[in-house]
């Protein structure tokens, strides 16, 4: 009896704390669950190990980090959009498809949370997971700092650009994983869209396009690409236009995720 | 607490739920019966705000589910069909997560989790990962999630599905006990559950309510309601049949058959017979003829018979719209 009464009163206290606080609380609760979910399965460890190994391989073997003889991490960052192309959809493919496959989505969305809180919570958790992976590349920073005298500001910008690129890809994976309960399908669609986002502004492709397409069209297509925005960050610049680009991609994709989830429920 | 008015849900051209209305007050346990695909789960999903209705109105404790979903959802505990749960979590972790989403923090959260674990007999598996649980435990874990915030309204979609008879009994007892203070709706296709736990039952078929009443009232609709079965020693079968036919209280004799050394007969009362008159006249007959009466039993009518007579089987050809 006693416990019943106090449980109910606590619930009403939480309800009285106002919608804004409970919204933040819900996002944090959902994000916490999602992030713990990564680390209770071997997926997280496999993912991080592969991410670090591949980055090392590309940076040192393909990017010829030492032969460049530069105190910068350009040879390291230039591979990130390509690695993310496969690794981010792999990390994000289960976000919603797993919920739909296990029918836990019915549980989650009948809790007193809005779909937006759930979408944001899950997205932030995956993004935090990718950030942890990225953070574990810190020995690279130590290496260049030991060998030379790099521009730490530029390195910080590089990391920021890399993190934003991962976030943009991840929001797209969130969208494709809401589309289907099959993780493989979600992964493939996501890779294709992300590939477009790279290639649309990748110099070898734009050079090819310029030969037959009018400049305005090439510019239009290129403006969809992450590549030029990612590159600005690698040059050590933080431009508000680049920030806006990444934020727009994320907002649009997460919004579409919400629309897709809503349409599934409407039947 | 729960008020459903003219609820309609269309999936494309097909009407899954077609004009369903009912109310459930605190202290009521409403059994939701119907064949598979009758629209039970769809109705429950609309009540809990998972899918929006095509038309109609649902209010929970005065809050409209469509216009004020968060306030309405706060009052509801929901056990979805097949009891989904995050398989990568432990029982404790899962219940904590549910409690936090229900706005419980810190000590209140832990207390709520302990209470739910105790009520649902999950003590032995509290640290176990959900994907290693047996079906019964998994079901009860999801059930625990639905009562974690001691909600005023409980919506349970087949709460006893996949449980063994002992567990079924426990869950029914729990539902009945909680029903004293809450408004509960639970769906089932096991008819004995209606008797065991419900104060009222609704039978739904092809998206429409075809019967609504207490289990008693529903049973009255049975052909067999009021029929009397007797076992008697003494007469021959022909003799018994003949004497029964002569009674004014008997409309029809359903059967007379040998049952060991005795005879067993079942008669349907005539429409003019008052309550108990048939039994009285049968007893008088036995006394008069100096037979020996072994058993006299009034049939209450059987729910499964009512169920069969008012719902169409899946295999019946469906009417085209």
What does this structure look like?
The complex is a heterodimer of chains A (267) and B (321). With 267 residues, chain A is mainly alpha-helical. Helices cover 83% and strands 0% of the residues of chain A. Chain A has helices spanning 2-16, 19-40, 43-62, 65-68, 74-77, 80-92, 94-102, 104-109, 115-135, 138-147, 152-179, 183-199, 203-210, 215-223, 227-234, 240-266. Mean pLDDT of chain A is 87; it is low at 1-16. By secondary structure, chain B is α/β, with parallel strands linked by helices. Chain B folds into two domains: 2-220, P-loop containing nucleotide triphosphate hydrolases (Rossmann fold, 3-Layer(aba) Sandwich), CATH 3.40.50.300; 228-301, 2-Layer Sandwich (Alpha-Beta Plaits). Chain B has helices at residues 40-47, 69-74, 91-101, 106-119, 135-147, 165-178, 191-197, 215-220, 237-246, 277-289, 303-310, and strands at residues 2-11, 14-24, 29-33, 55-60, 63-64, 76-79, 153-157, 183-188, 200-205, 208-213, 228-233, 250-259, 262-269, 292-298. In chain B, the strands form three sheets. Chain B has a six-stranded mixed β-sheet with strand order 6-7-8-3-9-10, with helices on both faces. A four-stranded antiparallel β-sheet of chain B has the order 2-1-4-5. In chain B, strands 12-13-11-14 form a four-stranded antiparallel β-sheet, with helices on one face. In chain B, helix 3 (91-101) crosses helix 4 and helix 4 crosses helix 5 (135-147). Mean pLDDT of chain B is 87; it is low at 316-321. At the A-B interface, helix 1, helix 2 and helix 8 of A face helix 2, helix 3 and helix 4 of B.
């Amino acid at each position: 009896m006693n416990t019943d009464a106090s449980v109910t009163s606590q619930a009403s206290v939480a309800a009285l704390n106002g919608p804004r606080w409970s919204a933040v609380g819900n996002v944090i609760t959902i994000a916490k669950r999602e992030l713990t979910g990564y680390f209770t399965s071997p997926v997280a460890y496999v993912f991080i190990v592969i991410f670090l190994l591949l980055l090392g391989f590309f940076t040192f073997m393909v990017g010829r980090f030492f032969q460049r003889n530069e105190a910068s991490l350009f040879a390291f960052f230039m591979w990130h959009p390509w690695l993310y192309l496969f690794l981010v959809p792999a990390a994000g493919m289960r976000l919603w498809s797993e919920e739909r496959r296990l029918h836990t989505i019915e549980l989650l969305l009948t809790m007193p949370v809005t779909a937006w809180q759930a979408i944001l919570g899950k997205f932030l958790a995956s993004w935090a997971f990718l950030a942890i992976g990225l953070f574990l590349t810190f020995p690279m920073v130590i290496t260049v700092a030991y060998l030379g005298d790099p521009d730490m500001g530029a390195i910080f910008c590089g990391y920021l650009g890399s993190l934003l690129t991962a976030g943009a890809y991840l929001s797209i994976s969130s969208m494709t994983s809401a589309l289907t309960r099959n993780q493989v399908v979600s992964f493939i669609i996501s890779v294709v869209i992300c590939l477009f986002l790279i290639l649309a502004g990748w110099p070898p492709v734009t050079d090819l396009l310029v030969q037959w397409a009018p400049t305005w069209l090439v510019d239009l297509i290129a403006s969809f690409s992450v590549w030029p925005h990612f590159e600005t960050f690698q040059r050590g610049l933080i431009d508000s236009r680049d920030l806006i680009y990444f934020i727009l991609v994320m907002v649009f994709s997460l919004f579409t995720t919400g629309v897709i989830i809503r349409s599934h429920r409407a039947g | 607490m729960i008020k459903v008015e003219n609820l309609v849900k269309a999936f494309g051209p097909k009407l899954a739920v077609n004009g369903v209305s009912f109310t459930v007050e605190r202290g009521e346990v409403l059994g939701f019966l119907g064949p598979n695909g009758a629209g039970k789960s769809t109705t429950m999903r609309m009540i809990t705000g998972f899918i929006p209705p095509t038309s109609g109105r649902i209010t929970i404790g005065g809050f409209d589910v469509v216009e004020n979903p968060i306030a309405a959802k706060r009052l509801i505990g929901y056990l979805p069909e097949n009891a989904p749960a995050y398989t990568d979590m432990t029982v404790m972790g899962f219940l904590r997560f549910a409690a936090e989403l229900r706005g419980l923090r810190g000590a209140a959260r832990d207390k709520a989790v302990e209470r739910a674990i105790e009520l649902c007999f999950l003590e032995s598996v509290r640290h176990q990962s959900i994907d290693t649980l047996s079906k019964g435990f998994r079901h009860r874990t999801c059930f625990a999630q639905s009562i974690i915030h001691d909600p005023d309204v409980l919506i349970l979609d087949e709460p006893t599905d996949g449980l063994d008879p002992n567990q079924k009994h426990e869950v029914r007892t729990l539902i009945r006990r909680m029903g004293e203070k809450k408004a509960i709706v639970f769906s089932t296709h096991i008819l004995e559950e209606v008797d065991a736990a419900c104060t009222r039952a609704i039978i739904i078929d092809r998206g429409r309510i075809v019967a609504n009443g207490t289990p008693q009232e529903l049973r009255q609709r049975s052909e067999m309601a009021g029929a009397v079965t007797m076992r008697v020693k003494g007469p021959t079968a022909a003799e018994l049949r003949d004497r029964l036919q002569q009674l004014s209280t008997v409309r029809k004799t359903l059967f007379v058959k040998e049952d060991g050394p005795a005879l067993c007969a079942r008669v349907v009362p005539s429409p003019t017979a008052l309550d108990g008159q048939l039994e009285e006249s049968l007893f008088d007959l036995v006394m008069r003829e100096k037979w020996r009466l072994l058993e006299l039993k009034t049939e209450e009518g059987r729910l499964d018979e009512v169920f069969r007579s008012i719902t169409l089987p899946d295999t019946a050809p469906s009417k085209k719209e």
